[in-house]
Amino acid sequence: MSRPTADDPAPVHAAPAIAVPLRAGPLRLVFDRGALRWIRLGEREVLRGIYFALRAEGWATVPYEVRNLEIEVEPASFRVRFLACHDRGPVRFDWRAEIAGRPDGSIDFVVRGTARASFLRNRIGLCVLHPADACAGRPVIVETVDGDRAETVFPALVAPLAPFRNVRAILHEVSPGVEVEVRMEGEAFETEDQGNWGDASFKTYGTPLHLPHPVPVKSGASVDQSVSLSLFGITAEPVEQATATVPGALPHKRNSTEPVLMALGTGAEPPLPALGLAGAELVVLAPAEAARLRPLRLAHVRADLHLEAPAWDAALERAAANARLLDVPLEVALFLPDDSHAVLRELAEKAAALRLRVASWLVYRALDRTTADGMAATAREALAGVDRSAVFGGGSDGYFVELNRRRPLPRMLERLAFGLNPQVHAGDDATLVENLDSLRRMAQTLRSFADRTPLAISPVTLRPRVDPSPAAWRKRGERPFTDDPRQDTSFAAAWTLGFLAAAAEAGFASLTFFELTGPRGILDSGRAFPVLDALADVAALPNASVVPARTRRPERVALGGRAAHLPRQRHHGDASGSGGGAFRPGLALSPRPGSTGRGLRVGIRASAARDRAAGRGGVVAQHRWGWRRDATNTSHPASLGLGRGNQRYVTHCSGSAQAFGRSGPRFECAGQERMEEQA
Known about the structure:
- This protein is α+β, with helices and mostly antiparallel strands.
- Helices cover about 15% and strands about 35% of the residues.
- The strands form seven sheets. It has a 17-stranded antiparallel β-sheet that branches. It has an eight-stranded parallel barrel with strand order 19-20-21-22-23-24-25-26. A three-stranded antiparallel β-sheet has the order 29-18-36, with no helix packed on it.
- A hairpin with a 7-residue loop joins β14 (about 190-195) and β15.
- α9 (about 440-450) runs parallel beside α10 and α10 packs parallel to α11.
């Protein structure tokens, strides 16, 4: 199976047209395609972003083109001006932006927009992203549009409904001695918990959801809004003096790159979840395709059966045939009509005739793809005899939000499941990586009402399974929105490994990814995608577990993973040296625009005891699932070498190697330059 090499860089996807690092006094940030991103006070993330969004009828996000861009950059301040134009389907809307950052740490983002045509919209205006990892569970003061101020907290668990409404300003502590206030003007705002859709942030936005939508926008209508950020010293001391105590807040030179210190955890190492693939009912696998998929050692393949619609029996037969070819049981997602007794009996008869092996039944209402109380019991009564070992579960076939707002009785379910894709609100590479952190809060929220019920995510896709935009909006030759162009790239492989590690740490028992074949699958027309190779590497490491990895800059780099046993042979020829004990798959790295390296928490470590017993020496291996971009936005694979056990971890960054031996499994890396294998 082929892999990307340094001589064959992966294609660039979602590369920004321009990404400029900026400073506003002690704050560092990036201007990225019309938005401000990663506003930081040293190592503290103040805001994840400020941006403008136009959500049309059906919640389709209408993209815009940036024109007439002007950027003035000073050592401690900046000014940005540009025109943004939305032009998709019936939507014609322009807005002018003026963004200014000042030496005192204040930032203003002002927009003035005008509709060039009449259209329907659900939301239009500025949005503010607050990082969940920095804010969840922390105190906050919310000022309403009426001028009232209330002391409250950002929700620690994922809040099913908007925690803050009628918002004018939000103030919270960033670091001891420093507070930040974000003030919104031009409309009533509210804050939602985007963990409901798999995002690692809270979002404050205009047009509260309790207001009617969609609403008409008439040609010539205007929108004027602003977001202002201000820093305050909690004591009487100036902001500069207060922020001087924050690590890295006042660097000697603008946009300096500090190394990232990172430690591998020594506590519990969670096992990997059971892995499956979706789409078993959609295709008829060829023998050659089945031969490529069998080494993945899947725990199941998923089949969707819409029992409220005709031809479900043909879908069942295709799924059963594919499962037999792969020698795996089925995960069957049932979509039931309101009166399901007769069709469930018919399904039981056909499944028995096919001698179906079933790992789990996921039971949903066809009307809204959620599980109502009593549905699992009805399905169990009809289908328990098909496979006595099968479990009955449910929750939401859509997003986590439906499960969080309509919580089923956990005692009625043997598995609690929901679907997920990482780009409900934004689809750039960095956002997809950031959103891996949302899995922990979602799992904690489920545990708060589901106790010990095993948790599953099914299915996991890169893009939504339904395009919110009308087909008529699609340009000629443009692929369906459901088909992500990164599906067949190394980025998808690295992201999948990162998702797998994050889900294991969060405590999920089962994951069902993508589809078997096709543009949303892991191979197509006989060609294996890199994600297939990545899953094959995981399958080649029996009884693998995840080693938690911690760093003060988790958005830049992370890793972790352990295998109880390694095959004696080198896997796909990637290991170098004389033996097996090595970190693999290696680290997936990618510097985000205008910043230092981003990473995925990935890696699997061999058993040092096994190597010692076999008389093997320490080796260093490299794995090229990672990807990175340099200053010219050229994409390259990234590699990392790590040693056996706790003996030695070596990496080569920015022209110098950093090694930490028996004192602890740590490494230091600036992440900006190409990483090379070290012996």
